[in-house]
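Quick question: who can interpret this fold?

. . .
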Amino acid sequence: MPRQFFVGGNFKMNPISRDQKQSIISVLNSADLDSTTEIVVAPPSLYLIPLRDTVRKELQVSAQNCYFKDSGAFTGEISPAQLVDAKIPYVILGHSERRSLFYETSEIVAQKTKAALGATLKVILCVGETLEQREAGQTAAVVEKQLQAVVDVLQESDWSGVVIAYEPVWAIGTGRVATSAQAQEAHADIRKFLSQAVSSAVSENTRIIYGGSVTAANCKELSTQPDVDGFLVGGASLKPEFVDIINAKRN
């Protein structure tokens, strides 16, 4: 069974006003979008519920992070149970900005992933290497180590709720983008790892999406790769060109 193409928009800490947020959503609400693509948008947590209530029904909403506890004295955090109660179906976990700026280890990301799935959230799990690691030929080893921490705490059945986002750190927000061949190689390595570490079924069924300076100009070529099942889009998700990225698989 073919894997459904998936496009996520990670707004990060943008936009800075409700009016700007509404302008972004108005573009999506009025656009002609590919009905065969699963579309998810991830605004800052302040906008999650208002956006959920105003976005067209074909679009789903995702949080950008959550903690691994359901409640308690964890100032500034948001819990999986709170997201489920708010009818937010997805959460992004392990983004490189969380790993590098907020010192989240792969083990913490794994705990969060387990907690989110246990609460019935679906997870966009981010992995990826730095430029230094790529130039040292360590891409596969780095990504596999990040994934192994998650493999260690999940059951095979849990993986049906996971979308893996391969995001080379050196390509995020830099304007540099992995070539389609580089993206395909990394995605194929991830699929091979899943086959060995979990099962062939999980390997075949798990969607692996690419993130890292995805634009309307490069999305078509990337989307033709056999193991690229979609995109996690950063800056371009705030612009009208996000519609073109969503529609990348249209002929």
